[in-house]
Amino acid sequence: MNPTAPGMTDSRNTDALIGLPFNDSDDVLRTAIDEASVPALLMSMVHMTGDLGLLDELPRPFMLIPMDLQGGMNEPDKQAVRDRAYDVVREYRDRGCPPPFVPDAEQMRVMLDVMADGQVTDEYIDYVAADLRLTDADQNGPPLTSTPEQRSAFPVVVIGCGEAGLLAGIKLQQAGIPFTIVEKRDGVGGTWRANRYPGCRVDIANQYYAYSFEPTDHWTHYYSEQPEILRYLEDVAAKHGIAEHTRFSTEVTEAVWDDSESVWRVRIRAADGSAEELRARALICAVGQFSNPVVPDIKGASTFAGPAFHTADWRDDVELTGKRVAVIGAGASGFQLVPAIADDVERVDVYQRTPQWMAPNIAYHDSIPDGARWAIRHLPYYGRWLRFLSWWPLTDAAEERVMMDPGWDDGGLSCGEANRGIREMLIAWMRAFTTDEDLLAKVIPDYPPMGKRMLQDNGTWLTTLQRDNVELIRDGIAEIDAHGVTTVDGVHRRADVLVWATGFDVNHQLGPVDIRGLDGVSLNAAWGESPYAYLGVTVPGFPNLYCMYGPGTNAVNGTSIIYNSECQMRYVMACLDMVIGAGARWAAPRPEVCRDYHRRNQERLKTMVYTHPNVVSYYKNAAGEVPTLYGFRIVDYWKWTRRVDPADYELRT
């Protein structure tokens, strides 16, 4: 087949978001239908025909299962839908691809009842419809009340040009607000530019790990590797002309609020050491929670004679072929790295502190066939429904699996009946790849599933650990010397290269950036190990400061951070418009409002698996709290960030 060349769609063209017209041959259509997600195809057929009767006539999804784009349907049922779809798609093509049918609320209710077997109740309808692009309210937010002239006189500085900082630049530009992005690296991408270790890839399906206003069919894999994610972000930045507003290879050293002039004085330092001060009416901190790598303080680590580096600071100049590699850490990055290098190295020793739960995902490394990509680009709303299939089973639909039952007691191995069922399923998945009981004892966690972000697995991890040149080591590290690693049992293992796969300091996300608000108060000092922000965005005592991916916004299981960033930036724009439209000097959340929100979030998290006493994670601070995590439903966050309530803020004129 020869489908339309893949590439990023144009968000200025509504057709590009819901399906581009086509006149391809019958063979192209048949191939696309055969490779498509049948539940998404079924919904697209309704958009092409306006006939909801198809939903009664044809087989429907059995149930929405995480990481399954086919809704649990059996092959005969899928074939029945595909056969009918072939006629529907050809007829739609022959009619000239007219504007698709857009359901009203009641019709949407019918479609969702079929798609999600009644899981999507009335409170979710507007939320889902907005993400499907059946309305623009989710993307545009409330209308701006300030004038273009007012906005043009309100400069903003953005710290960081990862996915959140890039998004901030796009939305500020669309509103006509002048801005400068300061990025410490030499290009856009943030964590996707920093983390380029072998095997690095996204663990959220690409249809969901993309800006809602910039969908694309260019992905070659369902879960793309780092180079493709980075290229996507670079393409979006180029399309919107963000680079001309960005100071690359430049760090923000401090930002101080000057109340006499109602500006942020932002000190920056370029790669050559030269310093400069930028002045802004508002500051958007988009440094993220994964910008400060952690390297444990292990005796003798500094004496190691070979190359030693963190996965977030990958050394492209270090050749691993034929080397003995020590990988310290078996979390997300180690989990991806080890299988990617095992074929090339002489040996890899993996030092695991805590075993990780793995979510069965047979498609994790699969490429997307051309026909399936054609369907995303051309079939009306197909790509949007595919996105729904990617996120719904993993977010609010999974709530009961992460709640702790106070009366449940199985020795801390699970936190409730639903969670226990998940545990048994995950162990069965592991046993499908090995009968080695010693290895299973090392990899089966002794804490409840979903207490940490689940790793995506197609069997590669356990298969790799059974190679002759790979060893998984559970014994703690006693010392590192010039030539290798010694564990507490006295065994010394030689190494030529040492790789730290030891995560990030999420509770001190500002790192070396010194942000000072009213009365010179330091944000780092105010936060300590328990950062807080109202809705994860605004902080009392810090006027016109807005956080992206701030405290209390990390939804550990299933949610795309890009989706959360869109919610946050919509709220930031509403806050900026409130200040600008009122001609105010500044706004900051009322302390009692922020305290109440933080308290409610932490109390909610105490009922969830993330705070279970058996769960040890870098999200927990010394007090056992998880201040960076978000405990409520995603639909709640969507509702809370749709507009700003002026009563929540101190507005100084």
UniProtKB/TrEMBL annotation:
<dbReference type="InterPro" id="IPR051209">
    <property type="entry name" value="FAD-bind_Monooxygenase_sf"/>
</dbReference>
<dbReference type="InterPro" id="IPR036188">
    <property type="entry name" value="FAD/NAD-bd_sf"/>
</dbReference>
<dbReference type="Pfam" id="PF13738">
    <property type="entry name" value="Pyr_redox_3"/>
</dbReference>
<dbReference type="GO" id="GO:0016491">
    <property type="term" value="F:oxidoreductase activity"/>
</dbReference>
<keyword id="KW-0560">Oxidoreductase</keyword>
<protein>
    <submittedName>
        <fullName>NAD(P)/FAD-dependent oxidoreductase</fullName>
        <ecNumber>1.14.13.-</ecNumber>
    </submittedName>
</protein>
